[in-house]
Amino acid sequence: MSDDQPYNPATFRPGGEFDLIDWIRQRSGSHHRLEVGIGDDAAEIAWPEPQNQLVAVDMLVEGVHFDLEQATPEQVGRKALAVNLSDIAAMAGRPVAAVVSFALPRGRATELGKRIYEGLARLADSLDVALAGGDTTVTDGPLVISVTVIGTPSTGGSVLRNGAQPGDRLLVTGCLGFSREGHHLDFTPRLSEAAALQNSGGLHAMIDISDGLAADLHHVLRASGVGAKLWADRIPVRDPAPSTGTSDDPRTPLEHAISDGEDFELLAAVAPDAAATLLAKPHCETRLSDIGVVVQGHSAELLMPDGQLVVLPPLGYEHQLD
Questions:
Q1: CB burial readout 82-111, b (16+ within 10 A) else e
Q2: pLDDT tens profile 273-299
Q3: Strand-pair partners of 234
Q4: Within 10 A of 118 (CB to CB), how many other CB atoms are there?
Q5: Which of 61, 159, 265, 298 is deepest in the core (most CB within 10 A)?
Q6: How far apart are CA 193 and CA 154, in angstroms?
Q7: N- to C-terminal Cα distance for the chain?
Q8: In a domain, 219, yes or no
């Protein structure tokens, strides 16, 4: 964690920024990947071997990506790291280290910062990810957290969005939809599932479903120059929370599964034989569903249960910049 101003004993006060940084430094302790950890101007990370690295960064903003009236600070911290780990999983990579920056609301910065970091650190510890540093500042605005994760590609190389081929099966992990009812705060990054998909020998393209199934499918189709056909009755739909009133919601569960963002599951294009083997003998406990096929062309279509074939537009979440 870098400091904006040099340390001055006359101005240092308990509960200030430096006190929080010192707490984080002590909480982080040592890690076998850190030659130099928190406390200097930069971290020095010991890489597993000399090769290319993966880098993913996400910024979470209070009121956009989470609501502190509905989520604990620990859940927010965990999510801030988990969304980046999901990006590393989508490349079939392995996370090594992370740096974390907070813009903490004035008046509650110290306690809030500690609780957020605890949630983040627990997930990092469980996956052997080194927390290498970052930055803290105080703001009059909302809480903002930015996490950058650095990882290594698998021995087979990174899996990109542009490799889908006609005939590939489209496989998805877990269930989709209703993610804002709690799933977006406690999801498990699909790192082991990504490894199982790559070990199948037929993985051609992959993406994590963060913007919505339809939107992220179109990212793959556009990058690969292909089309797709999905079967509506094969899309795994997450059950809505029992306490959630959905009677006034005009969208069906299928529409939620297609367009809700922040599922953080994997969508993979896999060669037919490898897909059949994975489905017959799953290499992980997470549900794996065959929801469609890659085809020639540039459009996506959805076969409804009644036999009607409809165009599937890139439905999902997109930040409006203006």
A1: bbbbbbbbbbbbbbbbbbbbbbbbeeebbe
A2: 999 999 999 888 899 999 999 999 999
A3: none
A4: 15
A5: 265
A6: 13
A7: 33
A8: yes
For 219-243, how does the pLDDT look when each residue is reduced to its tens digit (9 = 90+)?
999 999 999 999 999 999 999 876 5
For residue 115, being part of any structural domain is answered with yes
- Cα–Cα distance for residue pair 2/108, rounded to 1 Å: 20
- The domain tally of the chain equals 2
Are 199 and 117 in a shared domain? no
Whether 162 maps to a domain, the answer reads: no
pLDDT of 244 > 50? The answer is: yes
Strands (E), the chain: 34-36, 44-45, 54-61, 94-105, 130-139, 144-152, 169-173, 203-209, 227-231, 265-270, 288-295, 300-303, 309-311
- CATH number for the domain including 237? 3.90.650.10
DSSP helix/strand/coil, 257 = helix
- Structural domain boundaries enclosing 176: 169-243+250-311
Is the same domain home to 92 and 138? Answer: yes
Q: Tokens 């910065």 appear where?
A: 109
